[in-house]
Amino acid sequence: MTAAAGGRPAVILLSGGLDSATCLALAMADGFVPVTLSFRYGQRHDVEVEASRLLAERAGSEHIVIDLDLRTFGGSALTADIDVPKHDDVADLDGSVIPVTYVPARNTIFLAYALALAEVRGAADLFIGVNALDYSGYPDCRPEFVAAFEIMANLATRAGVEGTAPLRIHTPLIDLTKAEIITTGIELGVDYALTTSCYDPDSAGRACGRCDSCLLRAKGFREAGVTDPTRYQNEAGAT
Amino acid sequence: MTAAAGGRPAVILLSGGLDSATCLALAMADGFVPVTLSFRYGQRHDVEVEASRLLAERAGSEHIVIDLDLRTFGGSALTADIDVPKHDDVADLDGSVIPVTYVPARNTIFLAYALALAEVRGAADLFIGVNALDYSGYPDCRPEFVAAFEIMANLATRAGVEGTAPLRIHTPLIDLTKAEIITTGIELGVDYALTTSCYDPDSAGRACGRCDSCLLRAKGFREAGVTDPTRYQNEAGAT
């Protein structure tokens, strides 16, 4: 990585998960000065926001938390009274259907706020940690969605009218497997003990080990040959 | 107008101004069942939200108000500590520059929420009351912005993945002058006394008569040959 950005500001969406933590590290390795943005969006647990705060602090980054109330709309297992599905094995995940953990238009809303923040701060760069594993199931993680958002964003803002620096949405993880993301992050010094992936953690922030996200995380660490520092509710860990 | 929509739900962005009030009336005249959506977004006054509530109530529409805090970002005279510009005459307005009342990425954020609500409710139609007068100054009121948002929205959601009814963003006011909007609304029975346009009303909700929005509204009513029911802070009204 080179300091290609030369200290320019970039807005980084930070969820507290391992993907966005790696995304932040990649942006910084590329020379951007990060402004991290997280959301308290009526998810069942505040563990994600706390993880984001710790990650931003460790990175020495400014961190902004926005309160959204997506519970007003419902429609997702992450924000409404719908059970988070549990599985015994990662092979049980069906990438051909949209999971009930999908939050309607979530990434559109997150990127819209990131765009507003970028415009106010004069940042022309946004980072979002979507990757290949997500976009099999979530419509708003697909490369074609991000490309369409970027086109829209350039028409939505001063930059679009005034012809100044066009806004670019970076997705450095888009083609990486979970194992590749972890390997990249370890090289950059990411402390994955600070990250959280579970859709259904307990009040102590310990992972369930059986939701889609836990299974994919555990598989990634296994394949990367790295020990996952995640704390689990059961001593057995993830399957 | 025909009942072309046959009772299908549509999400209508309702600001409490005369444009969105007319937009709501047009959607209903076209047979849509409206779900109106308003935002408390750190604007200096709550007059807009109250006007929206009254308009929705009069229309017999469900009304959802979302709290956003765009003050966290600042950058606009409507949400930060920047004076709202006042003029003596509508001819003083300069359509060639973006006004300081522009709120960064506001319509992107509003439409993103509308998209989420539409997806949860199974609505394939969104209405936003942008019009020709706005898009000379605000980047996110331009037809090309709305068209790009629609393309993005269809990639962002279940509809895009599952190939069900594509989402459509309706902008029925886009080519109308303020006078034409008012004439249309009067025909449809819109009570413009319920609407508010001023960027800088007093605590009683009375208009300043001298901000861009007041001047454009007054000009519209004058050209439509209709008396504006707006209550002003000064007896002289708008110039």
Model description:
Two copies of one chain form a homodimer. The first copy, chain A, has helices at residues 18-29, 47-59, 106-121, 132-135, 143-156, 158-162, 178-187, 212-224; strands at residues 9-13, 33-40, 62-67, 125-127, 168-170. With 239 residues, chain A is α/β, with parallel strands linked by helices. Chain A has a single domain, classed as 3-Layer(aba) Sandwich (Rossmann fold). In chain A, strands 3-2-1-4-5 form a five-stranded parallel β-sheet, with helices on both faces.
Structural features:
239 residues, five-stranded parallel beta sheet, Rossmann fold, homodimer, globular, alpha/beta, 8 helices
Brief write-up:
By secondary structure, chain A is α/β, with parallel strands linked by helices.
SSE diagram, text form:
2 copies of one chain form a homodimer.
Chain A: E1 9-13, H1 18-29, E2 33-40, H2 47-59, E3 62-67, H3 106-121, E4 125-127, H4 132-135, H5 143-156, H6 158-162, E5 168-170, H7 178-187, H8 212-224
Parallel strand pairs in A: 1-2, 1-4, 2-3, 4-5
Helix pairs in contact in A: 1-7, 7-8
